[in-house]
Amino acid sequence: MSTLPITADQLSTPDVIANPYPWYHELREQSPLNYEFLPAGAVSGMNEPVKAWALMRYADVYGALRNHETFASNHSLAGKVVPRLALIHDDPPRHTRFRHLVNKAFTLKRIETLKPWITTVVNELVDEMAASQETEFMQAYAIPLPVKVIARMLGIPGEDYVRFKLWSDTFLAFSSMTPGERAKSNQEMMAYFGQMAADRRTQAAEDLITALVEANVDGESLADAEIIGFCMLALIAGNETTTNLIGNMLGILVDRPDLWQQLRADRSLVDRVIEETLRIESPFQRLSRIATCDTALSGVAIPQGSLVTIYYGAANRDPAEFPNPDEFRLDRDLRNHVAFGMGIHYCLGAPLARAEASITLNTLLDRFPVIERGREPALRQTTSLMVYGYQQLPLNLRASN
Asked: Which residues of the chain have pLDDT under 50?
């Protein structure tokens, strides 16, 4: 018997955004289930609530991610709730051509060449944190590092990371801001990247924006909207995923001092910590697709044209796939977690996020024998439907026992 007074329509409330896992466990057996994805008025010009089918079972999520023909990305809200983003809102053949174009910027070889520079930035940020006994980790480290890294790849000034983060947060803030406020912020971001692209047309540089401007796909250059859309995707996904991965990882480890000491002695466990963090506290919780035909999952009929929400976070805690899913364990087979998606839309920046998390954890293990919670409480974010992470994570980083 359920002890939580829950309904499917509560999935977009601040309390659930802050801690969705009890709701996932209660609702998973009812999945797919129809629920209120966005309240009335959340989308400009749409006065009725937006309904969607929630997929929370691992098998359904995995199947939908692998079947991009039936569950397409170019859904009805693309360009309405938020501006269209390259790749995320694209389907083949457009997706295939565009992905092939930008893959080269995120190869393992390219990430390896970035690691020394990333390490330098990491140490600079850690030096600043080490100067004070207690630090608010999100603002001091987890936010600036990923934004600085993706800014370098794009070729934009990393010192503007506060503005970039504000744009990113606003882009994802469906429940806490009006459509007009979100639109104004999105227009500012689009104008910024439009100007950057225009600058690269007159003065090229060794960066991703220049590569996009100079690209030729099937004899055609990319349109400005395509370039802007990819820049926005890189900035938003590139910083939100890694920021929340790093924050969630430290939020887990700070309460496990024995594991911290074990990691200091055995760095071969670092990658397993990162993967288990991705599973148990997935940085991206959900994304949308549209059913291109009448279909069924787990015996539930989903009509053609229905909006479908894929719950990565729920799938990664499905006990049918991950026994004792709420336990943080390093002995799991994590090859099939879906924190970075699956299929043709598998996260382009996954190698970069893993590299930043690995350099971060190894550096902190080197520098701080002990980490503890700060005096102020940790607070989860409650405004974005898509991500799971901290708004505030005070930590005491101790350079000696």
From this structure: 1-3
